[in-house]
Each structure stands twice: as C-alpha cells, then as structure tokens.
C-alpha cells in the first residue's frame, strides 16, 4: 500500500499532498522511516529551512514548495496519509 506525505497549515483543517521523492527523504529525518508507513504528525516551521534548502540544492522535488508553504503559513503539519 502506498502512502503520501500530507501537509496542512496548523490553523486549517484541509490537507494537500507533496511529491513522493520529498516524502522519502524527509521521512528519514522526521520519523526515521522510508515513508512507507504512518506515524505521528509533526509540526514544522522555519527551523527546517536549512535542511530543505539542502534538499532543493540536491534537486529534491517539492522542497521549494514546502519552504513556500511554511513561509506563507508559519507552520505546517506533516503526516503520512
């Protein structure tokens, strides 16, 4: 069964998904998994901009989108859905 890396602004109730490539690499950092299974949600903010900038430099699809989302909303909640 495939899962997605989902996000939502902390203050909203709807959800969106991010690219699978980003799911795989960010899951290792945030959950210690390959992204194939769920776990607790994690709220992230500007503290991960440096990490995401490195992912952008490495060509990881979606890292720039997540930076923009955090910049717009302050914090976003991430989970596997």
Order of helices and strands: EEHEHHE
Distance between the termini: 11 Å
Count of domain modules:
1
**Main sheet attributes: strand count, strand direction, barrel closure:** 4 strands, antiparallel
Concise account of the structure shown:
This protein is of the alpha+beta class and 81 residues long. The protein has three helices and four strands; from the N terminus they run E-E-H-E-H-H-E.
List keywords for this structure.
81 residues; alpha+beta; four-stranded antiparallel sheet
Structural summary, described in words:
This protein is α+β, with helices and mostly antiparallel strands and 81 residues long. The chain has one domain (5-80). It has 3 helices and 4 strands. A 4-stranded antiparallel β-sheet has the order 2-1-4-3, with helices on one face. A hairpin with a 6-residue loop joins β1 (5-9) and β2. The longest helix is centred in the first third of the chain and has 11 residues, at 20-30. The protein starts with a strand and ends with a strand.
What is the topology?
Blueprint: E1 5-9, E2 16-18, H1 20-30, E3 42-44, H2 49-57, H3 63-73, E4 76-80
Antiparallel strand pairs: 1-2, 1-4, 3-4
Helix pairs in contact: 2-3
């Amino acid at each position: 069964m495939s899962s997605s890396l989902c996000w939502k602004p902390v203050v909203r109730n709807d959800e969106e998904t991010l690219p699978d490539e980003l799911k795989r690499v960010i899951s290792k950092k945030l959950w210690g998994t390959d992204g194939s299974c769920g776990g607790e949600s994690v709220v992230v903010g500007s503290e991960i901009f440096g990490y995401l900038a490195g992912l952008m430099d490495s060509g990881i699809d979606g890292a720039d989108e997540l930076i923009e989302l955090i910049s717009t909303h302050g914090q976003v909640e991430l989970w596997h859905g």
